[in-house]
Amino acid sequence: MHPNLDHPDFIDCSDLIQALNDCHLNLSFMERQFKCNNVSDDVKRCLHEARLLRRRQNNEGGRQRAARIGTFMNGMREREERDYEIARQLAMRELALRDKLWK
């Protein structure tokens, strides 16, 4: 079995797909069972290679996105640590001022 062959991802296999469609149209059901097998196998092989290529491209894109997100998150973490330190210093100043007022 194979997926819907009209999908634009299979443009590289269009010649083989057309040959398979022609084979199916020109032969009767019983003839089609055996005479179109070679073409069908070629189509399956081509679709498999197209799927592997898409998988490699998607994996590479995912790695790039993960790296960008990791860089962003590291930057956020650094900003949060810096903001936390500033807030801690301000709080310590406020406490010091309050202690002076209460003495």
Explain how this protein is built.
Helix content is 83%, strand content 0%. The longest helix has 66 residues, at 37-102. It has 3 helices and no strands. The mean pLDDT is 85.
Task: Provide a compact summary of the structure.
With about 100 residues, this protein is mostly helical. The chain is built from three helices and no strands.
Indicate the overall shape: rod-shaped
Count of helices? 3
N- to C-terminal distance: 86 Å
List segments where confidence is low: pLDDT < 50 over at least 5 consecutive residues: none
Helix content: over 70%
Count the beta strands. 0
Strand content: under 5%
Radius of gyration: 32 Å
Instruction: Write down the overall mean pLDDT.
Output: 85
Provide tags for this entry.
single chain, mainly alpha, 0% strand
Present the secondary structure layout:
Elements: H1 14-26, H2 29-35, H3 37-102
Helix pairs in contact: 1-3
